Structures are given as structure tokens and as C-alpha cells.
Amino acid sequence: MSHGLTLQSSYTYGHALDTNTQNGWAGAESDFQIAGRPDLSYGNAQIDERHIFNGSIIYQLPFGTGKALLNQNKLLSGFVGGWQLSNTWQALTGMPFLLSWGGGGSDFSGSGTWYPNRVCNGSIGNPGIHEWFNPACFPSAALGTYGNAGRDILFGPGFFNMNSSLAKSFKLPWLGEAGLVQIRIDAFDTLNHTNFGQPNASVVPGVVGVTTSTSTITSASTSRNLQVGARIVF
User: How many CB atoms within 10 Å of residue 101?
Assistant: First the structure.
């Protein structure tokens, strides 16, 4: 800490690969496309978080007794002194999702998930909730064949969250050397930032092409919460 200010940050790079991501209950993904060749399903795990940024700030505001500003008047110091501002944040890049063909089992295998073919990359320059990827890059496989698109080849939206706190401490000598009471205001998801869910990745061929919902995002979460509290330290 220097001048009442503490900054911390971290960055983590990770890459998770598997043949089938399970969540401990019913399983996050369907069975292998080809049961006898699980190696063909080897790819990005659905828990593959490539880039993770974390940070925190703690700042003891420079007002009141013992501080640089407004430190002469005891009454004024009682109001403006002892405040501390805290902030934590986390940013993650998007996680992969599985593209599947929803037109039925053209390979006659009875598999739970059929992959489409991949004729181009599928990513677009400025993805949005109305079109996150290019579905035209993923036509259905020919009758009696398996699609070549592979598992979890595209990535969804990233995630960002920030939490903040403003707290003031009052000394309570009769509780001992460390005695104090602290009042605080906490804000979770301070910016009320919208975090979007994964896009609809079911590619269903038809007379006029894919369904209108393919590549769109229809889920999101914002969860700003405020709370006021107090605690006694002794």
C-alpha cells in the first residue's frame, strides 16, 4: 500500500481440451458422433476459458485526521474521514459452443448429435446478438455421411463483472485496540453490465436455408444488487 492505495491485477491463460465435457450430473454434451472413434471428438472443452483478467483496488480516501486533506477540524474529520473505496473486477473471453445439425440422422447412426459440414471459418467481423456467426458456412452433411465441423470450434460472448464497496470506520476504544464499527454500501455488478448467453447453434436445413433463430442470442443476465450493512470489529 502506498498513500492509502493498493492495486492488484492478474492474468491467466488456459486451454482445456477433451473428447466430451461432463458437468457431474447429466452431462454437458451429447454422446460421441461416432461411438467407435472418440478421438474424432477431441477439441476445445466447454470449460475452455482462454484469457482471464482479474483486478482489485483499495483506496483509503485522503480526508480527515492523519490524512493529507481536511485534517484540521475534528468535527469535519468525523464526517469525511475514515472512508475507504474498494473495487474488484473480472473479465473473461468467451467459451466455446457446439454446432449441431438439427435435421435428423443423415448418417443413420442413431447418434445424439450430428455435426454439420464446415465450408468456411464461420466467424464474422462484428458479431452481435442478431448474428453471432455465419450459418451459411455450416451446411448439412450429405446423406449417409458424417459432418466434418468438429466439436466446439466457435466461441461465444465474453464475460465482465465489477463489484464495488464504500465503507467508513469509526474507532471504538472500549472494544480494545482494534475496536471499530464499520458502515458500508456494497454494489454487486456495479455497472449492470449485460453478459450475453451462447448463440443458438442448431443449424437446421430447409427449403429456404437455416432457421431464423440460428446464430442469434436470446439470453442475457444483468444482476446489479445494492446492500447497506454494518459490522463491529474487536
Answer: 23
The CA distance from 119 to 121, in Å, is 7
C-alpha dihedral sign at 133, 139, 144, 147: negative
Q: How many domains does the chain have?
A: 1
Residue type, 203: V
Owning domain of residue 175 = 5-233
Sign of CA dihedral 135, 137, 142, 147: negative
CA distance 165 to 90: 15
Distance CA 157, CA 57 (A): 26
Q: What CA–CA distance (Å, rounded) separates 29 from 115?
A: 13
CA–CA separation, 93 vs 48, rounded Å? 10
Query: How far does Cα 67 stand from its chain's mean position?
Result: 39
Residue-level pLDDT at 108: 56
Torsion of CA 136, 138, 143, 145, to 10 degrees: 160
Q: Residues 45, 19: contact at Cβ < 8 Å?
A: no
Q: How far apart are CA 119 and CA 131, in angstroms?
A: 18
For residues 214 and 202, the answer to whether their CB atoms sit within 8 Å is yes
AA letter at 174: W
**Which tens digit of pLDDT belongs to each residue from 112-124?**
567 888 999 999 9
Taking a C-beta distance cutoff of 8 angstroms, is the pair 151, 17 a contact?
no
What letter represents residue 27's amino acid?
Answer: G
User: pTM of the predicted model, to two decimals?
Assistant: 0.78
